[in-house]
Amino acid sequence: MDILFKNDDFVFSYRVGGILKHNGKILLQRPKNDDYAIIGGHVAAMETSMETLKREFEEELHAKIEVDNLLAIGEIYFPWGKRPCHQICLYYNVHLIDDNIPLDGVFRGYDELDNERIDLDFCWVSLEDLKKGTKVYPLELIPYILEPGKEIVHFVSKQI
Structure pTM? Predict the structure, then answer.
């Protein structure tokens, strides 16, 4: 069961995201007609955030990853349908341990949320394009992707 609580007034979500870089590019997900986002998903009850990340990459991309280090913690506020969502998200640097996915271009995959299938494009986007302003949500995370420091960072993103 995902750690995702909803009532009439708001949604609370505990999510984890993986920063996968290869040859000067980052792998991002994009639902149809939407902006890029970091690949990941909701942490399941009694599952560690790292276990979640490995499971999500296997489910969505059929790729095996190793989790490297915690990069950032985000407190993110955004609209979830008609309700406000308060999300805590942990972002980790990760790397592939197999070559089951294309290492360039765009390929298809999907996710399931609330028993609904969401088709996704997985896109290798150059870090140069990120520097030039390609939008990736949450926007506040981009500088830390481009220039990772030695410390874990914390950011707040308010889209409502």
Answer: 0.93
